[in-house]
Amino acid sequence: MSDKRITLADVAKKAGVHVTTVSLALRNHPRLPETTRRRLQALALEMGYTPDPMLRALVSYRSKVALPRSKPTLAYVTNWTTRWGWKEVTAHPQFFSGAAAKAEELGFRLEHFWLRDEGMTHGRLSQILFSRGINGLIIASHGREMGDALQLDWRNFSAVKIDYFPHQPVLHNVTNNQCDIVRLALQKVIAAGYRRIGFVMHRGWDHAVDHLWTAGYLCEQQNLTAEECIPAHIFPDPLPVERWFNENRSDVTPDAKPFERWFKEHQPEVVISKGSFVLPQLRRMGLRIPRDVAFVDVFLEEFNGLTAGVRQNHETVGAQAVEILAGQLQHNKFGVPEIPTTTFVEGTWFDGKSCPV
Fold this sequence. Notes:
CATH architecture of the largest domain: 3-Layer(aba) Sandwich
Number of helices: 12
Shape: elongated
CATH superfamily of the largest domain: Response regulator
Number of domains: 3
CATH topology of the largest domain: Rossmann fold
Order of helices and strands: HHHHEHEHEEEHEHHEHEHEEHEE
Number of strands: 12
Largest sheet: 6 strands, parallel
CATH class of the largest domain: Alpha Beta
């Protein structure tokens, strides 16, 4: 067998086409008919063609150092009740800032599009993006009350979703690893000697991440005895749905009486939650942290050593979404993926005086 590397020119000669046509086919470029792409891809595979990694690295380097006439645009598509309402909610502003910084680093510009703009429809947005040559989309900040399907003309776009909604179509998505964030918190407090561990979560926030908050809590409880396990306090009650389905507010707290009943019945040694959820209720009950009950914040935002908890790396979520999208665009992958993937971004633990060993 010959040691000679099969080149694009070899494949083009065999197929009777120009080398550029083979290059476009192997990059799955929509400029070529699908039948032509598949025929040339099959021929290249049969002949044993493989890309030259050194050449690919050189092309990538040249594209980075070249000075383009204008930066290509990526669309950051939101579907919130107001244009900028998502900026007032936990995590969402950081998603955007992380995405914008990574877009700038990779040579793109990020532009916000709001799906509830006057006269805007899914079809209208598809037309606007296509006419402007924008084919890369970050789908983010989609309110649950806006519906669970996004009906764009996906043939023209490559898209990556941040978080879980809308569920349809099923796209590549990037999200904080809520399940493992709770598990990390429980592992840390168990290692610190706590056994009666309570977990408090807003029902709408749990719903927003496909119940991964409660899944992580129940999973890690397997390391405790049945007597030590405390049921999670999920608020508010399931009905009426309107009380919890729209989880956009950051300042919600449990109803006082149900929370107090749960606390007195189960007597947790430590509570894992979001500070704004439970700290006002604990103060109302006259409980001191950590003297009367320890506290761990799984939405930790201050890192001064006073509060123990997990920082969710929201900026990394946004940056990863753009990085994945850039890769999809580089390989001309458009439409709804046949096998969608989920990228989980881990949290970072911080010790704090609120949960002493």
